[in-house]
Design goal:
The complex is a heterodimer. By secondary structure, chain A is of the alpha/beta class. In chain A, 38% of the residues lie in helices and 28% in strands. A six-stranded mixed sheet of chain A has the order 6-7-8-3-9-10, sandwiched between helices. A four-stranded antiparallel sheet of chain A has the order 2-1-4-5, covered by helices on one side. By secondary structure, chain B is mainly alpha-helical. Chain B has one domain. In chain B, the strands form two sheets. In chain B, strands 1-4 form a two-stranded antiparallel ribbon. In chain B, α2 runs antiparallel to α3, α2 crosses α9 and α9 crosses α10. Classes of the chains: A alpha/beta, B mainly alpha. At the A-B interface, α2 and α3 of A face α6 and α7 of B. The complex binds adenosine-5'-triphosphate (ATP) and magnesium ion. Adenosine-5'-triphosphate binds next to β2 and α1 of chain A.
Chain lengths: 235, 286
């Protein structure tokens, strides 16, 4: 198993609060790895810490055999990591097209093809090309955020709870898209929606109180009712 | 007819000078939402360092280059020390930049002395052309040309590159822009430095036009720049060009026909514009 990203004994603080105590996991290339855990467990903080938005106080974050812990966020991004934050981070006053243009490092053939590919999956974005990001629906914002992370040639996408606050039919749509993107890129997904997680995930890690406490293949988790109940509150 | 033409050329030249002054301010306000009342301080520092070099070397070109460098350096210092801690907070920006404006103004007196300095255009820009009945003063034409060149250059950069979008996105969500691989700190710093360099450039170009420079010009021109930015539509780059030309022409014609009103004309235009178009002449896009 060759892993694209590997976190070892990562600890992190937010201000004086010790939030991540011991995060250990690997993201194998070409797979979807899912981070599970109850609210406040530290999933978002983990993604932010990988992205460099939150300092690593101990341990290491290794991406493609290079320790990227505590690099500046833009340098981490430029190593080929795309990020879809929990709140989507859409630039509200910029149009859909402008949101995408800000992200596009190049405007070559390849980027254009990637853009077209993702726009075909999200025709709404084409339809509302000139609409300000702030006026999109929750689902459309999510699509825009995903498209924006995808449009550059990234080898790893970090996606934080894409189903959050979306109607079931929209969740379905987002899920299908991530399944399609899986063919092209490696994904680290935070997802509370268990159905979605189990449909697209290959491997899971459970985070509880800032620690990775369990991991395995997604298929195994579905069978382990006791585990799900203990850490995820699913019965 | 020749009178109208002369007044128009005068007005255009004044307008272009005002545009150069306001361009930097409108850029940093429109893109980064920073209210910089120290703008006039950068203007006089450009004027004084440029004129000093001009006195010493007798080269106006060198004076322009030195003024631009002064603007870049002071812009860097201002952004790092003064603006960086107050991004996003207009009240703090006004207070701290106004304070810094006064510091810059007093420092001029310390470094260059408190007295008014006389400046005249370089020999190659002195004198005038005769076009039929109309006398065209060379230095004014020079200002008009420089003004339009700068306008189109900056306009094209804003239009054709994603730099403007990046800066606006950075103001809205700094973290997100960084995670798209953009060094937003560097971009902000660069935009601020360009704005400061434009202020300094307008200072040195203004010197031979007005014939004199003095430290108190700093605050006067800070206020004038703000009036133009407000008329133009708070941060609209094209708007600031039109507003500056409008103010320039109004000043020229008023000075001739209604001299009593010529000092109040800026405020008058601003008031009228704000009554009928509170958003300014041009709406800022997006
Ligand atoms: N800015 C902050 N200041 C202090 N504590 C914070 C801050 N942000 C997050 N935390 C705390 O850090 C812990 C982990 O938060 P995080 O957002 O990573 O959880 P999460 O697993 O993503 O939860 P959710 O499922 O609700 O999104 C929580 O206890 C939270 O209260
Ligand atoms: Mg979260």
């Amino acid at each position: 198993m060759s892993s694209l990203l590997k976190l070892s004994q990562v600890e992190a603080y937010i201000q004086q609060f010790h939030i991540l105590h011991d995060i250990d996991f690997e993201v194998p290339k070409g797979e979807v790895t899912v981070l599970l855990g109850r609210n406040g467990a530290g999933k978002t903080t983990t993604l932010r810490t990988i992205m460099g938005l939150n300092p690593v106080s101990n341990g290491s974050v290794v991406y493609k055999d290079e320790d990227i812990s505590n690099l500046k966020p833009h340098l981490i991004a430029n190593k080929g990591i795309g990020y879809v934050p929990e709140d989507q981070g859409v630039f509200e006053d910029l149009t859909v097209g402008e949101n995408l243009r800000v992200a596009m490092k190049r405007e070559d053939q390849e980027t254009t093809e990637r853009l077209e590919w993702i726009l075909d999956l999200f025709p709404d974005l084409k339809k509302f090309w000139k609409k300000p990001g702030g006026q999109l629906s929750g689902g459309q914002k999510q699509m825009l955020a995903i498209a924006r992370a995808y449009v550059n040639e990234n080898d790893l996408l970090l996606i934080d709870e894409p189903s959050k606050g979306l109607a079931p039919i929209v969740v379905e749509k987002v899920m299908e898209t991530i399944l399609q993107m899986k063919e092209k890129t490696t994904i680290l997904l935070v997802e509370q929606n268990f159905l979605m997680a189990s449909k697209i995930g290959d491997r899971f890690y459970i985070i509880d109180d800032g620690q990775t406490v369990h991991n395995g293949l997604m298929g195994e988790l579905k069978e382990d009712k006791a585990l799900m109940k203990k850490y995820l509150g699913v019965s | 007819m020749d009178l109208i033409a002369s007044l128009t050329v005068n007005g255009l030249a004044t307008g272009m000078l005002i545009f150069l002054l306001a361009a930097g301010l409108t850029l940093i306000f429109g893109l980064m939402s920073v209210l910089n009342f120290a703008h006039g301080g950068l203007f006089i520092w450009g004027a004084y360092t440029g004129v000093w070099i001009y006195y010493v070397t007798n080269s106006f070109l060198l004076a322009i280059i030195v003024a631009i460098i002064t603007g870049l350096v002071l812009g860097l210092i201002t952004e790092r020390l003064i603006i960086k801690p107050v991004y996003g907070n207009h009240i703090q920006q006004i207070l701290i930049t106004l304070g810094f404006m006064l510091v810059l103004q007093e420092l001029i007196k310390v470094v260059f002395g408190p007295d008014v300095k006389a400046v005249s255009p370089p020999a190659w820009l002195e004198g005038s052309f005769q076009l039929g009945d109309v006398t065209l003063i060379k230095y004014r034409l020079f200002i008009i040309v420089i003004g339009f060149l700068l306008f189109f250059t900056i306009y094209l950069i804003l239009k054709k590159t994603r730099i403007g979008l990046i800066v606006r996105a950075g103001v809205m969500n700094r973290e997100m822009v960084q995670t798209l691989g953009i060094n937003i700190r560097f971009v902000f710093m660069a935009v601020f430095m360009v704005g400061a360099a434009l202020a300094a450039l307008s200072g040195v170009l203004h010197a031979p036009y007005s014939g004199v420079i003095y430290a108190e010009m700093g605050l006067e021109f800070s206020i004038l720049a703000f009036i133009v930015v407000v008329i133009g539509g708070m941060g609209s780059f094209t708007g600031s060009l039109f507003a500056a030309i409008l103010v320039g022409l109004a000043q020229a014609f008023m000075a001739y026909y209604v001299p009593a009103l010529s000092l109040a004309v800026n405020m008058l235009i601003m008031t009228v514009v704000l009554i009928f178009r509170p958003q300014g002449l041009f709406k800022v896009k997006g």
